[in-house]
Structure formats: structure tokens, C-alpha cells
Specification:
single chain; mainly alpha; 6 helices
Length: 101
């Protein structure tokens, strides 16, 4: 039950943050997807660090999430941190790392 709730939260957060608005144009979408990457690279965060945090557990992922300056990506990271203690959550966490870093 808890896993289902966490996955529903994680997927709904992805849908809400990724859904374009009616007045969005291609430039807005480019800014949406390019800006977080630039700010993450400025902090020198990478996929290997993220996956290592996933392997260490929820506390390590939470510490990693605090380093992410982009609020939308940080919110998804917190969802991954909440689910990382289960095998499916661990896969979701590593998928998050591969998608954003």
C-alpha cells in the first residue's frame, strides 16, 4: 500500500511538472528542459553520485536531494528518496538518476 502511494505521488509529480500549459510554445519548453540541466551541472552533480546515494538508502538520497538547486527536479528526487527502501523504489531511484544527471 505504501509503495503504491509513493509511486502514485512520484508519477503524478512527473506528470504535473512535465505537462506543458496551453499557452506554452517551443521556446518555453526548451527553457523548461534546458535550465535544470545547467543548474545541476553548476553543482557538479552526476549520475554516479546519485546512483551511489540510491544504493546507500533513503538518508543518502535525501542528502543528495538537498544539493539539487532546481525545485522541480528536487521534488522528484524526494519522491525517489521516499521509495528507495523497496526493490521497485530502488529501480525508480536509479531511473531518476539516469533521467536527470
Amino acid at each position: 500500500m505504501k509503495l503504491t502511494a509513493v509511486l502514485a505521488l512520484f508519477l503524478s509529480a512527473m506528470a504535473v511538472t512535465a505537462a506543458p500549459t496551453a499557452e506554452a510554445d517551443n521556446a518555453d519548453l526548451d527553457n523548461f528542459f534546458n535550465a535544470p540541466t545547467a543548474s545541476i551541472e553548476a553543482r557538479d552533480l552526476n549520475a554516479a553520485q546519485c546512483r551511489a546515494a540510491c544504493q546507500r538508502g533513503a538518508d543518502a538520497v535525501e542528502r543528495f536531494c538537498r544539493l539539487i538547486p532546481e525545485p522541480r527536479i528536487r521534488a522528484l528526487c524526494w519522491g525517489a528518496a521516499a521509495a528507495v527502501e523497496t526493490p521497485i523504489g530502488l529501480r525508480a531511484c536509479t531511473s531518476f538518476c539516469d533521467a536527470f544527471f
